[in-house]
Amino acid sequence: MARTQVTVVGSYNVGLFLKGEVFPSPGETVIGTTFHQGGGGKGSNQALAAAKLGAQVTFVGRIGNDDFGRFALRLYEEAGVSTEHITRDPSVHSGVSVILIDANGQNLIMVVPGANFRLTREDIDRAGAAFAASAVVGFQLETNLEIVEYAAAKARAAGARVLLDPAPARPLPDDLLARLWCIKPNEHEATTISGVQVVDVPSAVEAGRWFLGRGVEVALITLGERGAVLVTRDERLHFSAPRVEAVDTTGAGDTFCGALMAGLASGEPLHAAIRFANAAASVSVTRLGVVEAIPSREEALATLGRCEVRPLP
Fold it and tell me: For a pLDDT cut of 70, what percent of the chain falls above it?
């Protein structure tokens, strides 16, 4: 029986956005102009993107038993994301991000992970049936690394393809890398993890080879407006991104990951899923916000023809 589901193990952080003319100095209070509350956390963003782009999605994570957690559950209900494996923890608050934005668009961000760092092995064990039904299980690095390692091993043993978006970047143990089917860093994350300075397509290929040398089957390195580079044992390809007028690039990587997982779960070959992910991400940067900017499947498909692929030496 074909696996058609996506499971995402990761974080939820409510985003509290405060905009004003200037940042306060230490000890100073300033009056802002705009406030917005939105869903966030890389795992949550990717789960919502995969669902909006057509996949049947389960999210595995922890939230607090608070208003922010209830806000998250409403988001998932509206998007059709299964909340069966989201634990409401009464002992700690939901993850919170406070983002200060000045008149020039610069930002200051503080994140308090809260419940995200309380995810346990027992939470992962309870999600075993979801892993077994999934075409791909996605991870990021906004939860404890020990839990990511444990869950990746469980997902691989269940026969799912394991995909890691290694953000925020940090050095990774070889045991974890060897369990991955795919790693999807951007150029900065690839540099941090591999030690290869990724500045262009050739250096992205070099970093991809480094990942393959640690047992990863598929290295997919995103380069923003320059598209993405795929490196496997058999091929090296460059996937161009459509030219668009970018308004807000926040969350584009999460939309890319969600779309990639949705494409794979629908049975698309890897190349087609990457083109679909490129298309979805390119639409998202033309809009403000993160969750609000995720396109529909139809909108992504309408852009697909502008995503070209070329072989690399």
Answer: 100
CA distance 217 to 229: 14
pLDDT at 290: 87
DSSP letter for 116, please. Answer: G
- What's the confidence (pLDDT) of residue 12? 98
- State the Cα–Cα distance between residues 203 and 205, nearest whole angstrom: 5
> Residue 237: which H helix or E strand, with range?
strand 236-239
* Alpha-carbon 230 to chain mean position: 17
The tokens 């003319």 sit on which residue? 21
User: Which one is catalytic: 89, 123, 165, 254?
Assistant: 254
Q: Is 254 a catalytic residue?
A: yes
- Which domains does the chain possess? 5-22+33-311 (3.40.1190.20)
Which residues lie closer than 8 Å to 58 by C-beta, 6 or more apart? 5, 6, 7, 8, 47, 81, 82, 84, 85, 127, 130, 134
DSSP 224: G
Query: Phi, psi (5° rounding) for residue 227?
Result: 90, -140
Q: What percent of the chain has pLDDT over 90?
A: 87
Give the β-pairing of 34-40 and 13-19.
antiparallel
**Helices and strands: H and E segment counts in the chain:** 11, 14
